[in-house]
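PROTEIN DESIGN WORKSHEET
SECTION A - STRUCTURE
LENGTH: 278
TOKENS:
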């Protein structure tokens, strides 16, 4: 029976749940973000541009966004390898390795930063042999890169893993029986189904790396114009009671992050419309 304009929803309560959703999101997300933008109105346009285009600010933003993007790409590649091994193979200790993936989620960021700094210091277990090769990790931008990889890898693994689990292995066997080699099976059958999840994992890892603070400052060195990340510069401005300056930098980070994540989500939506029907 077709319903008219007065047809009731099968599941009642839409108005109530939508109202609660909008109210909660407004309190938790929209109002704080609006306050961030309002605070910048204390600055004139010339002052705002002067703050966000200063040498120190630009270097901090370039470092944060550049290393976050590079770390997200590495996490995307290595995360796919880890997911494939955990889902498609059975080996001793697989459940232990699967649990290890979640350690960056559970570990306090300060603890992660201290552990990475101790490990990659010039006398650390990994830092010492790398130092002999002329590679310094701790207190350099390379250390920031390592920390961002550490905290971002679970986002890719945990986003892609359930999708790959649901992707029946019989599809791969059917492709092989039709004459497809391994590369064609991966590129034409498996990857298209995983692209939305891959992009989501990439966006989450990228966003987490941009905003990461606790695990980065211990290993970064925090030298202005060299190894100073944007979140640290915001904290410094707050400690100097330059609240408008801090919010100006935060607004730039917020807008840039939103545009990048929005672009990724649009690509994700486009990819979903082109998924093959199995």
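SECTION B - SEQUENCE
RESIDUE ASSIGNMENT:
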């Amino acid at each position: 029976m077709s319903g008219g304009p007065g047809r009731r929803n099968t599941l009642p309560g839409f108005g109530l749940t939508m109202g609660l959703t909008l109210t909660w999101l407004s309190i938790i997300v929209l109002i704080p973000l609006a306050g961030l933008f309002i605070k910048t109105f204390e600055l004139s346009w010339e002052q705002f541009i002067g703050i966000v285009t200063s040498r120190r600010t630009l270097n901090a933003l370039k470092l944060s966004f550049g290393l976050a993007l590079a770390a997200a790409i590495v996490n995307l590649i290595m995360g796919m390898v880890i997911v494939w091994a955990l889902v498609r193979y059975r080996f001793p200790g697989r459940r232990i390795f699967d649990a290890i993936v979640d350690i960056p989620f559970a570990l306090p960021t300060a603890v992660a930063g201290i552990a990475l700094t101790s490990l990659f210091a010039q006398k650390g277990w990994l830092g010492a042999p790398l130092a002999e090769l002329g590679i310094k990790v701790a207190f350099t931008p390379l250390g920031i890169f390592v920390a961002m990889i550490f905290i971002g890898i679970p986002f890719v693994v945990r986003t892609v893993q359930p999708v790959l689990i649901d992707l029946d292995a019989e599809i791969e066997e059917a492709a092989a029986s039709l004459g497809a080699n391994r590369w064609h099976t991966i590129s034409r059958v498996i990857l298209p189904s995983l692209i939305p999840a891959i992009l989501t994992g990439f966006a989450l890892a990228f966003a987490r790396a941009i905003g990461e603070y606790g695990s980065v400052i211990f290993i970064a060195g925090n030298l202005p114009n060299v190894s100073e990340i944007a979140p640290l510069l915001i904290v410094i401005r707050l400690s100097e009671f330059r609240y408008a300056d801090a919010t100006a930098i935060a607004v730039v980070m917020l807008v840039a992050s939103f545009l990048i994540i929005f672009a990724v989500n649009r690509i994700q939506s486009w990819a979903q419309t082109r998924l093959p029907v199995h």
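SECTION C - NOTES
Residues 82 and 209 are 19 Å apart (CA to CA).
Residues 55-88 form the longest helix (34 residues).
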